[in-house]
Amino acid sequence: SVEQLPDEKLGPELAAAAAQLRDGGLIAFPTETVYGLGADARSSFAVGRIFSAKGRPSDNPLIVHIANRQQLDELVLPYPQLASALMDSFWPGPLTIVLPARPDVLSPLVTAGLASVGIRIPDHRTALALLELAGCPVAAPSANRSGRPSPTLARHVLEDLDGRIDGVVDDGATGVGLESTVVELVGDQMIRILRPGGITLEALRIAAPHATIDSASLEEPEVAPRSPGMKYTHYAPKGELVLVQGAPDAVTAYIHRQVERAASSGERTGVLAFEERLQGYKADRVLSLGSEAELETAAHRLYAALRAFDEGSVQRIWSESSSEQGIGAALMNRLAKAAGNRVVRV
Ligand code: TXA
Ligand code: MG
User: Fold this and answer.
1) Which ligand is located closest to the Cα atom of residue 59?
2) Which of 2, 31, 237, 302 is found 20 to 30 A from 288 (Cα to Cα)?
3) pTM attached to this predicted model
4) Distance, CA 205 to ligand 2 centroid (Å)?
5) What is the spatial distance between Cα 195 and Cα 184, in angstroms, rounded to a whole number?
6) Which residues contact 35 (CB under 8 A, 6 or more apart)?
7) C-alpha Rg value of the chain to the nearest Å
8) How far apart are CA 230 and CA 216, in angstroms?
9) CA-based nearest residue to 258, from 315, 310, 312, 313
10) Any idea which positions bind L-threonine (predicted)?
């Protein structure tokens, strides 16, 4: 409704935030995926501050956010027709497309020295309003300290980065709750998924029926990852997380036994489960991912749940698994990473 438009609610704050961005500032802002930590992508001073604030390795490139397709032409060299087709289908939206970078426009820190740059137009009114007001391309990784879950609330941003950044635009919870899908194109024939995310494999197939879609690199993340970010151990909770796969009854029985055993040796236990079986668990902390028939809800809740286990000082955590259809692929990818690939099949 009209009264919820960001220019009404957040107008003066957004104008100030945009001015800070143009001035080399670091501003966290919501997108439809997770909160991003933004800086002027043309300025090495500003972008350098992102890496120090996050404690991020400098060889991991940043995604550039723009408000519209006109801004794109200034940043990239000619690209495959397939890329335009994906933009038509998914922008604004949670799809980051790796494109050939035009030299000498973006700070080299953004691309970590690569000849390519990952770009997206976020599907979020407040993000778009901020990007338009700033008028510059905005480099923005997720607004967490490196090694922490991505923030889905402004409060998460402040937990990790208060005192290290110049501000956060608080517009409530983000939508998808997991980061964008990152793709690279091989000519007009092939889409390579470098990171599963908000745009599903199934949606890419429908939008590009003639392209081959390759996500093989996801199954062997330790083999020369093409997306530099995939090689870093991502978030790992303070407690030891195990991802349990198998038939629902077997999974429940296994987790039940493991929780009892750990509890009897005095450990604080946690379970991450779907609504359908939630009542059966007797751990110190049992957190719900919502119904397994609605994995969008699980994606939306995952990172906040992982933060909550840390706050509760849980030492051993077991998580149920979901199907890898649709957003389930990204969900299981992030859970497996958080589990440091400790996946048990029962
Ligand atoms: O949803 C998102 O994508 C969020 C919001 C804020 O937009 N941003 C985000 O950024 O997740 P970050 O920096 O946490 O993840 C960027 C990912 C990394 O895995 C990085 O390696 C990959 O994108 N990437 C960036 N530029 C690339 C490039 N030129 N080639 C290959 N991978 C690239
Ligand atoms: Mg991140």
Assistant:
1) 1
2) 31
3) 0.94
4) 25
5) 10
6) 28, 29, 142, 143, 150, 151, 152, 153, 154, 156, 157, 168, 174
7) 20
8) 13
9) 315
10) 33, 65, 120, 140, 180
